[in-house]
Amino acid sequence: MEIAQNFMGPGATKTMARINENGNVVGTIIVNCEGFPETTTLDSLTAATYSTHMRNLSHHANNSLKEIDVTDELVVLRLVSRKTEAVVTPDHEFHLIAVMRRT
Amino acid sequence: MEIAQNFMGPGATKTMARINENGNVVGTIIVNCEGFPETTTLDSLTAATYSTHMRNLSHHANNSLKEIDVTDELVVLRLVSRKTEAVVTPDHEFHLIAVMRRT
């Protein structure tokens, strides 16, 4: 699987390549702090749609956790749906999204 | 662990008891369609806080998934934070929330 664009340095590329090696992974997206996909193995439209929604959702989840306990912080958000599975890992600068097949 | 209130019938009680048997589970909540905790093993305040936030989040997640693919639907939402782990299973009438220790 080819990584379409990359402005992220070798560390991120290596991590993405490692995740993409997993047979169940459909693709990965790295979303920048402005909410745009920076690096992805998916097509641009899918990447853009996932980026917007998953980033909003991860912010919402983080805010909810902080309202329950102000010292808490979101580490991983996993959405299992009828068709796919998405894992969002938030960071201060970037969000990593992995879209997977249902196992 | 005692199930504080129960208006749900034996099926739900059995499922909750089975989940609570897991040593990592702090407590479970069944949230009704109005967003109020119906049955819980947690204290009322914690249950109410989790119910509100997790139900909103699960609706947001479901809407996001439907914007990506209108035929898709949320099955499980899992939030891993620094301190805890929460699993939300949405249903038409009820949401089941399980709060767990980080492993």
Automatic annotation (TrEMBL), chains A, B:
InterPro entries: Roadblock/LAMTOR2_dom. Residues 16-99 form the Roadblock/LAMTOR2 domain. Gene3D superfamilies: Dynein light chain 2a, cytoplasmic. Belongs to the GAMAD family. This is Dynein light chain roadblock-type 2-like isoform X1.
